[in-house]
Amino acid sequence: MSTVLPLAEPPPHVRAASRRAHEQQRLAKRLRHQVGRAIADFGMIEDGDRVMVCLSGGKDSYTLLDVLLQLQKKAPVTFSITAVNLDQKQPGFPEHVLPDYLRSIGVDYRILEQDTYYVVARVVPEGKTMCALCSRLRRGALYTFAEAQGYTKIALGHHRDDLVATFFLNLFFHAKLSGMPPKLRSDDGKHVVIRPLAYVREDDIAEYAAMRAFPIIPCNLCGSQENLQRKQVKRMLDQWERDSPGRIEQISRALGDIRPSQLSDPKLFDFLALGRSGGAALPDAHAWLAGEVRDDGEPSPERIAHAD
Ligand code: SF4
């Protein structure tokens, strides 16, 4: 008769490693799922698209490229991916890092060179943030390239937390209820920009980038000051998240569930039509409120007197 020996418990370090591997798999799956959902929800990528992925060398754009390449293999549609980096000639920019990495993963890529740093450093006074002008010049160079090459979509690495932060920046500093949409047509109408990381948390991206050991190039090589308004909003959001975990996710979901009738913009919702009885609409509510017309739409006596 054979005796079944109980299996020995794996040592703690083996158990910890297996738990870590399991968590990493779950993280990778979550990212693929969230990116896939954003692509589907907003119709970001169609059959035959030529997608240009803008790669800065930061954690967000590496993650975007990595996840898109994975989804490309399983996607029900066929599309191409080209990674494009703009070398802006910031002092100390390690030129070899991105080409080495992109060659190692076998993706089609292009490195553009334009000394926007020289322009920015000359125009922006010392000690002021250079990011706004720097980004504008970068966007201009990348969009021009996309047009010349016939890319049909431009993919950017903005994530959920960027979208929420931009919403509050516009609200607090520009008195506008607007944000950073997951998909948009550029102002000149020539490009469609997509943000497939729109549902992905920044913390998840940071963890994923560390797990995949992307060769990150810091964006502060130029020595620019951080934008103070953005910093302020980020501090506020971080504090909210600490006080009430899940709040950022809630705000992010709210940005996709807007009720125009519960806001106050008559351009978005026809408040004038609200409560009209039997279609007997006032001809001009503004004129009526101003006393210029009667309830039946005829000019008021005062109005007639003035006209005389
Ligand atoms: S940190 Fe420097 S390189 Fe990055 S966007 Fe700002 S100015 Fe440009």
Percent range of helical residues = 40-55%
- Helix-strand topology string: HEHEHEHHEHEEHHHHH
Count of strand segments: 6
Instruction: State the end-to-end CA separation.
Output: 119 Å
Number of helices: 11
Which ligands does the model contain, each kind named once? iron/sulfur cluster
Give a quick account of the main beta sheet: strands, pairing sense, barrel closure: 6 strands, mixed
- Summed over residues and divided by their number, the pLDDT gives a mean of 90
Strand fraction equals: 5-15%
What class would the helix/strand composition place it in?
alpha/beta
- Give the low-pLDDT segments: 304-308
If strands are numbered along the chain, what order do they take across the biggest sheet? 3-2-1-4-6-5
Radius of gyration, in angstroms, nearest whole number: 27 Å
| Shape type | globular
